[in-house]
Amino acid sequence: MIYSFSFAQNCRYQVAINSENLKATGKFKLTIVSTDSQSFKIPKKINLCNLRLIDLEMYDESKKSFEKINLAKKDIDCFDFKDKSIKLKPAKTNIYTVDIKSDLAVLQSTDFFETFNDRKYRFKISFPLDSYARCGESNKLITD
After folding, report:
1. Beta-sheet strand order (sheet of 140-142)
2. Backbone CA torsion sign across 65, 28, 26, 83
3. Angle in degrees, CA 88, 11, 131, rounded to 5
4. Per-residue pLDDT reduced to its tens digit, 57-93
5. Which candidate, 10, 18, 19, places its Cα nearest to that of 129?
6. CB proximity list for 31: less than 8 A, separation 6 or greater
7. pTM (global) more than 0.85
8. Strand pairing of 12-18 and 140-142?
C-alpha cells in the first residue's frame, strides 16, 4: 500500500509511505519531499533510537475494527547512537528504508512479525525533524 500525507506549518513537506512488501521483508519505504522555500534538517537515518512507536493496533475480525494493544515498556540503550542530520533542500526528496521488523523485535517482541503474520495490524511511528523553533508543531513526523 502507498500512503501520502501533506504537512504545512513552519516546515512544509509531503510524506509517502510504500509498505507493499512489509509482511515479506519487514521493511517499508518512507519518502519525504520538501515543499518549503527553505532547507530544514531531517535525520540521516531512521531506526529504533530516533523513532517512537506511538500506536499499535490489531484488527479484531469479530468486531470488524482495529483495537489498540498495549505497547511494551522497554528500556532501550541508545547511548552510543549518534543521531546525524542532513539538510533537506527545497523541492528535494529523501527516501528512507525503515526496517520496522528489527525495530519491533526490540520495541515490542522478538517474534512480532512471526506471531502476527496472519493478522492485520497497523502502527504509527514518530521521529523528529528540525528544531521546534524552526518547524513548530510540524517538527515531529507521525506516520500511519
Report:
1. 65-68, 52-60, 121-128, 140-142
2. negative
3. 80
4. 888 889 999 888 877 666 666 777 777 888 999 999 9
5. 10
6. 15, 16, 17, 18, 93, 94, 95, 96
7. no
8. unpaired
